[in-house]
Amino acid sequence: MKTAFFRTLRIVIAITLGACLFILLSYAGSKSKGPLEDVAILLNKNLASFEKKIVDTRESRSKSLHWFDKYRNNRDALERPDVMLLGAYDDHTAESYESIISLETALGTKLPLISLYTAWGSKRTQVFPILRAQAIYDLGSVPLITWEPWLDDFDPLLFPVSAGLSDKNKGGMKAIAEGKFDAYIDKWATDAKNFGAPFFLRLGHEMNDPYRYPWGPQNNKPEDFVAAWIHVRERFHKMGAENAVWVWSPHPAYSYLEFYPGTEYVDWVGTTTINYGTVATWSQWWSFDDTFGKFYENISRYKKPIMLTEFGSLSVGGDRAQWFQSAFDAFPVKYPDVKAVVFFHVSNDNTTTYKSLDWTFIEDEKVVSGIKHSVDAIEARYGAIMRR
Amino acid sequence: MMKADRKDLWSYRRAADATPVKKTILLVLVTAGMLSVLRLFNWWFREDHVANLFLFTLLSLIFWWGIARMVIVWMAFLRIKVPEKKTAPKGYRVAIFTTSSPGEPLSMFEKTLEACANITYPHTTYLLDDTRNPRFRELAKKHGAIWLELLDYPGAKAGKINEALKRTTEEFILVLDPDHIPFPNFLDNTLGYFEDESIGFVQVCQAYYNQYRSFTAKGAAEQTYGFYGPMQMGMNGTNCSVAIGANCTFRRKALESIGGHGVGLAEDLVTAIRIHAAGWKSIYNPVVVSRGLVPEDLGSFCKQQLKWARGVHEVLFAELPKHWRKLSFWQKISYSMISTYYMTGLTMFLFLLIPYFFLLFGWLPANMEFTEFLHLWLPVLVSAVLIYLFVQVWFCHPAKERGLHLRGMFLKFACWPVFFLGFLISLWNGTIPYIPTAKLAVKSFTPFARPLLIYQLIFLCSLGIVVVERGYYTAEARLMLSSGEVWGMVAFCFVAFLTSLGGLYAAYESRILDIAEPWKSVNLKNIKTPPADDVAIAPDYSLERRA
Q: What is the pTM of this model?
């Protein structure tokens, strides 16, 4: 009896100690995740950059975008550009930006802006996307980073604030403003600073749309969004990350003025101008002026350069080439403050409707030749500056 | 190894006992290891990890095959049992069978037979000879051994043993490989266990005395330390320790109950399975009471491995299914494990192929983040290394055997083509002649090392292709985003490339070995054993401690 007891006790103790050792090992792993992964990410970035430099004896894209160097290496020039910058977002860029290159080739130009999206969170991929940013920089462009404050992906051990709530996003902006996510923000800002080159940072876009993102008004008061924005920007300042150019980017269809953080905290105003045509019951064919005219009227008072951060149209229900044409025609005349246009060139968009939407136009010859024409006109207009 | 150290080999050694403290520590480590494996398992099989279903399945099979084997070995360690010391009862009639074949050096038998004569327990030594060389007969006579000329029996060594069984009557038979020099107390360490009527055979540790002579010999010896230490001890705990061709003492009744010693390239394993299937029990006694030879040149080592690989697969395909139902649970696991050991040839082949699929064709098996994998895999690795190092307390001769055994790993990697070949030959049931492993080193750059050269060539060519492709053909817009992945894979191949250099070195060194007869320098008078009656009373007998 006694032996059996001691044997059982021994086994129980051994298994307990074993479990503790396991937890220790895993914990050591989690703890070391930061530095270990940072090293891996940096190693990858530096290796990629090094390889690019060695290989760069070929004709490189950055050489043909040479005129843009004075902007992409100078934050002030990016903050107050005297040219119109074109850019694109394409969803087939996981392994390569070749789809962007194809679009450029079709349009007969090189796009100074390349857009990418990244979410907040504790996952390994939810850090400052330094490899991508560097890849875009080395291609001669500037990254436009849309930074989405989803708060569900934070490690509950490190960010108990978001874990404690049943709906982690309810009042999320207030939590950000109160500094509950500072550790994350500071790390991101430091990485951004280490990246070094200026980049556009579009934080919490479409914050005024109550149906889309958790940082919208369904979960947050406008003043909390403003406080969060100011807080994040101050953290960046504190970390010395002055290379971000801040793009405040509301949705034009809902009220937005109360979400404006104030002139000293915003560098650019961005907005979404995409036309769904008649693809859904709730949508109809809006002309570019319908979508943007009223917004421009209100927003140009802020005297900020304006960026059409998601610019595109579906082809169902109207003439897509004409839609683009009228927009480009209107920029110099009616909307002179529009200084950047980013094509929303997504082939597989599942975010709003139950079926996947195709926003690409590279196969649509009429649209391509129309836009190409407009691009030529822009280059003619700013030719002197671009050649300088 | 220094000359003085070599003398150190000629002492009786016994593995440490499995004390409750040691076993508790082991259980702690194994628990941590198991939980780490479960965590890795839970992460590995996620749907979003599948990039290419076929390759992912293949990779998973290979990877988890390796992990599963490791876990089973851990489980076996938990059952480690050292048999109690038992004094050999007086009056047993014992035969020692040692065999000589054409081409084996006479001078080696000089030592073996003299050492047999020195064995203190009363016995009769038989030399089973088919050399047709009269000097073997003279030698046997000189050392008081009985010379049996057994010509032209099928089944090589086992055939001769079976014929000798018919011509002799002793109740116990020690089958001793001729390159093994037994210590005088050999039989005192095995016979005691036969008092239990259910014991069919008693196996002791197989140790070597020429490992200092080359990289290959050292590596080959390193590969065996774990097997003849904690592994067989764990198998002893579950009554499935296996008989090795050399140094096994059999009960005649057990051998007769299965119709004699098994025949074939893995005759030892066949015999062990049959004896277990017939209901006999076995004992593994972790003592060093003899030392023998390990191949000194890579060619001989590979030949030996090929022979075993072929033989062991024969056990898997032909022998194991026949006895499956008669084996216990642990015996099934143990024999399955042993008889699939050489499949590492196949798994390693596929494992090495996968990165080349990616580099040359862009096929990726899994969408796993490397850092995430590392993060989950490191606890498994740490536990595995800790367990590997900890169980070394049960080595038969820890002072000389301890370590990470890198040479053994290099050698195992160098042998994957050999294992693979053995596996392929078994598929079409091809035959490999039974040739005793060379006792003297063969000075040559073995053809078995050629696959390594081919592998190295493939690596260098692929490296060239990758460099040219990335330097001249990869789109600029793709270059940076794919850099980490491509060079990571190249690094993975490079590790294999570096590992293959170990085998290449062994092959190169084999060319310049100085050929000597290692047994010449062995002085039987230097063999140190405890007094016979000490066996039962001195549990941790150690001569150093005494001096």
A: 0.84
Distance set, CA A159 to CA A203, B71, B513 (Å): 20, 36, 64
**Measured between beta carbons, which residues in chain B are less than 8 angstroms from residue A63?**
none
pLDDT of residue A75: 94
- What is the amino acid identity at position A343? F
Residues 6+ apart with CB under 8 A from A217: A207, A208, A209, A210, A254
Mention every residue, 6+ apart, whose C-beta is less than 8 A from residue A5. none
Are B79 and B234 a contacting pair, CB within 8 Å?
Answer: yes
Give DSSP secondary structure letters for B183-214: -TTTGGGTGGGGGSTTEEEEEE--EES-GGG-
**Residue from B30, B74, B479, B487 to probe the interface with A (highest A Cβ count within 10 Å):** B479
The ipTM, to two decimals, is: 0.82
Q: How many angstroms away from the CA of A97 is the closest CA of chain B? A: 5
The per-residue pLDDT for B547 is: 32
CA angle A75, A81, A86 (to 5 degrees): 105
- In the sheet that B181-182 helps form, which strands lie side by side, from edge to edge? B181-182, B290-292, B207-208
Give phi and psi for B381, each to the nearest 5: -65, -45
Confidence of residue A6 (pLDDT cuts 50, 70, 90): confident
What's the mean pLDDT when you consider all of chain A?
90
Q: Please give the structure tokens belonging to residue B206.
A: 């197989």
| DSSP letters for B144-156 | TPEEEE--S-SSH
Backbone angles phi, psi at B240, to 5 degrees: -140, 25
Residues in chain A: 388
Q: Give the model confidence (pLDDT) of A255-309 as tens digits.
A: 999 999 999 999 999 999 999 999 888 888 999 999 899 999 999 999 999 999 9
Q: Are strands A338-345 and A113-119 parallel, antiparallel or unpaired?
A: unpaired
d(CA A313, CA A319): 9
pLDDT by 10-residue block (mean), chain B, 547 residues:
64 91 94 95 92 92 94 94 92 95 92 95 95 94 94 86 94 94 95 95 94 93 93 92 87 95 88 95 95 93 91 88 93 91 91 90 86 87 96 91 92 92 86 74 86 94 94 89 90 93 93 88 88 45 36
CA nearest to B174, candidates B83, B261, B280: B261
Q: Could you give the CA distance from residue B277 to residue A55 in angstroms, rounded to a whole number?
A: 66
State the alpha helices, DSSP H only, in B45-120. Answer: 53-78, 106-118
Query: In A, which residues are within 8 Å of B468 by CB distance?
Result: none
DSSP A349: B
- Which two tokens mark A361? 């136009």
Count CB-CB contacts under 10 A for residue A361: 25
- Chain B closest-CA separation from residue A34 CA (Å): 11
Between the CA of residue B296 and those of B101, B179, B223, B310, what are the distances in Å? 20, 13, 14, 21
Mutate to test the interface with B, among A6, A30, A42, A44 (most CBs of B within 10 A): A44
In angstroms, the CA B452 to CA B497 distance is 9
Report the distance separating Cα B268 and Cα B275, nearest Å: 11
- A318 phi and psi angles, rounded to 5 deg: -175, -170
Closest Cβ–Cβ partner in A10, A18, A125 for B20: A10
